[in-house]
Design goal:
Order of helices and strands: HHEEHEEEEEEEHEHE
Number of strands: 11
Distance between the termini: 94 Å
Strand content: 25-35%
Shape: globular
CATH superfamily of the largest domain: L,D-transpeptidase catalytic domain-like
Largest sheet: 5 strands, mixed
Strand order of the largest sheet: 5-4-3-11-6
Low-confidence stretches: 29-65
CATH architecture of the largest domain: Beta Barrel
CATH topology of the largest domain: L,D-transpeptidase catalytic domain-like
Helix content: 25-40%
Number of helices: 5
Structural class: alpha+beta
Radius of gyration: 32 Å
């Protein structure tokens, strides 16, 4: 009698072998998932060139490069100062490497004093001098002209935040690029006569 029951059990298992395979496979997957959750590790290989937020990255979990990291990509210049008037921001680039970046204040476009767009070069490096105009005379510690009377300088008299994308339109400079004092000192030390400056909208 016992032998007959065993034979019937074996026959039943033979007819439902696929169920046993599913149970074993599910058990294996569960063990792998629990192991990864506990250890925080995975043997899955990273996917090369997987897109993440519009950038090519090494793996799906890699964070996209920030704007600052991309600012100097493909510059191809030994040293370059990039200025974006729309962003009210500047970057110091050495090759593809970002050296420094800073908020700035550019020309007051609402009053007809826009900062000139284009590619320029530092003309001279001056310290402790007065900037003179028809109705102003201001003292600056650092002055880096790049085109006619337009240049970079510190502006201790400015009373609104650098980088403000609205205030500069009515309260900005006469066309120069105002830079916070400590950053202006660094820019003065970093550039030389002939350093390229690009100014974009």
């Amino acid at each position: 009698m016992a032998i007959r029951h065993v034979s019937e059990g074996v026959a039943a298992l033979r007819d439902q072998w696929w169920l046993l395979v599913l149970v074993v496979a599910a058990l294996g997957v569960t063990i792998v998932l629990v192991t990864e959750l506990v250890t925080g590790r995975s043997d899955a290989a990273p996917i090369a060139n997987a897109p993440d937020q519009g950038y090519v990255v090494a793996a799906p979990s890699t964070r996209a490069p920030s704007e600052a990291q991309l600012a100097c990509a493909g510059v191809g210049e030994q040293r370059l100062v990039k200025v974006s008037l729309g962003d009210q921001w500047m970057w110091f680039c050495e090759g593809d490497r970002l050296v420094e970046s800073s908020a700035i204040t550019s020309g007051s476009v609402a009053r007809g004093h826009g900062t000139p767009l284009g590619t320029w070069h530092i003309v001279s490096r001056e310290t402790n001098r007065y900037l003179n105009g028809p109705d102003y005379r201001v003292f600056v510690r650092y002055w880096l002209p790049f085109f006619r009377d337009f240049g970079f300088h510190d502006s201790p008299w400015q009373r609104f935040p650098y980088g403000d994308r609205t205030q500069y339109k009515t309260n900005g400079s006469r066309g120069c690029i105002r830079v916070p004092g400590p950053t202006m000192a660094e820019l003065y030390r970093w550039v030389s006569v002939g350093t390229t400056v690009t100014i974009t909208p």
